[in-house]
Amino acid sequence: MNQFVVQNVTIIDGKRIIPDGFVQVKDKWIVAVGSEWMDNHEECECIDGQGKILMPGLVNTHGHTPMTLLRGISDDLPLERWLKEKIWPAEAALDEETAAAGTALALVEMLRAGTTCFADMYHLNREGTALLTEESGMKASLSRGMIAFGSKEAQREKLNEAVTYAKACDASSSGRLRGAIFPHSPYTCSLHFLQEAKAAADVSSLPFQIHIAETRKEVREYEKEQGKRPIAHLMEKGILSNGSLAVHSVHVNKAEISALSHAGVHVSHNPQSNLKLGSGIAPLPQMLNENIPVSLGTDSAASNNTLDLFVEMRQAAMIHKGNEERAEVTNAQEIVNMATYTGAQTLGFPRAGLIKEGYEADFILIDTRQPHLTPQLNGYGALVYAASGRDVTDVFVAGCALMRDRRLLTLDEEKIRKEAALAHEKWKAAQ
Ligand SMILES: N[C@@H](CCSC[C@H]1O[C@@H](n2cnc3c(=O)[nH]cnc32)[C@H](O)[C@@H]1O)C(=O)O
Ligand SMILES: [Zn+2]
């Protein structure tokens, strides 16, 4: 049986800090956590955590993995022009093979930076993505993105594909995959299609996710056409309901925040993507005050341009302090909780996101014996204001080692980087 102990380590999760602690793992579970390890099991493997922080694996609640191949193709444009002038034409030249190479690259990038669980929404290479995620040992919520501009038949076909994919993910034998239904947005799908997608999600007990209220222009134009703001309207129609995930939610007013809270809708906050596309700043402090489960997402590498959740944590903490001219408006512990515990709950992994007995052993080690992490005065502050994904040395998911001493064990990093470069060439030639 898989059994080991990490000892002499600083344990930090969203709820507490144990300065000189241990974590005992059996099979895929954390079976004991404490401050003094009594070594009475001879055959138990011990990992020395001296000089390290042990924290829950980071959870990225929004992204599009194949788009790593489009990193840098369109910097410095607003969302609408970014999509219509650059991204959509570029995506037309991606195929199953190049998308697969982009996804593999994204998994390597995320794993190296301590992400153990992620959301991925894309239309290409779906079975391949599920398979590779399984092989990597990571956890994920996977969905087929749907833009519904086409004929009724084409729309129905997409929705069928989406349901088939989500159900297959939910049924994965490892139990590390979840499926979701993700129509792209209220400006690329009709209200009727959103209702159909929501009904299909409900029938199969699948969670519903959507990009919404990302830019002021989206909200203004939707309101002009429908007489209501997008979040208010979708909530009224029951399209956004308990457990749904509203991605971005940048332009939300007080009434919408309160409605989201009452309905139990989750929010994925993607501050770096929202800043880079000039979309705006989501009212994170106000949403947290209303107890909305807000987690963090990177969005794709085409609007970020990395998949490092440490960067996202720092952005999430910093922009609101500056924006509101109040340093107390966000705090590092809450940000760590969003990036771990809340994220895991949002993606459908209720027993993940904490270093606690009875939770799955999804955790990472961070090397603090470096100048920028010395001295160790405030653990939460170190993680949010000083650390980066490059400080992660080890990654464990469900008790399995996926990275040890900065070496990936389940993914062939060299090969994946080479294949990504080749896929980039192939994509360029197809332009
Ligand atoms: N073409 C697909 C649907 C793709 S949805 C996923 C798409 O979302 C787009 N996207 C990525 N990030 C964002 C964002 O932040 N806001 C809006 N759209 C985005 C990007 O074009 C990506 O391909 C179909 O209907 O078959
Ligand atoms: Zn997105």
UniProtKB/TrEMBL annotation:
SUPFAM superfamilies: Composite domain of metallo-dependent hydrolases, Metallo-dependent hydrolases. InterPro entries: Amidohydro-rel (IPR006680), Deaminase_MtaD/DadD (IPR023512), Metal-dep_hydrolase_composite (IPR011059), Metal_Hydrolase (IPR032466), MTA/SAH_deaminase (IPR050287). The keyword Hydrolase applies. GO terms for molecular function: 5'-methylthioadenosine deaminase activity; metal ion binding; S-adenosylhomocysteine deaminase activity. Signal peptide: none annotated. Residues 53-399 form the Amidohydrolase-related domain. Pfam families: Amidohydro_1. It comes from the Bacteria. Substrate binds at E91, R144, H184, E214, D299. Its cofactor is Zn(2+). Its EC number is 3.5.4.28, 3.5.4.31. Keywords: Hydrolase, Metal-binding, Zinc. Zn(2+) binds at H62, H64, H211, D299. Binds 1 zinc ion per subunit. It catalyses: S-methyl-5'-thioadenosine + H2O + H(+) = S-methyl-5'-thioinosine + NH4(+); S-adenosyl-L-homocysteine + H2O + H(+) = S-inosyl-L-homocysteine + NH4(+). Belongs to the metallo-dependent hydrolases superfamily. MTA/SAH deaminase family. PANTHER family: AMIDOHYDROLASE-RELATED DOMAIN-CONTAINING PROTEIN, AMINOHYDROLASE SSNA-RELATED. Catalyzes the deamination of 5-methylthioadenosine and S-adenosyl-L-homocysteine into 5-methylthioinosine and S-inosyl-L-homocysteine, respectively. Is also able to deaminate adenosine. This is 5-methylthioadenosine/S-adenosylhomocysteine deaminase. It comes from Geomicrobium halophilum.
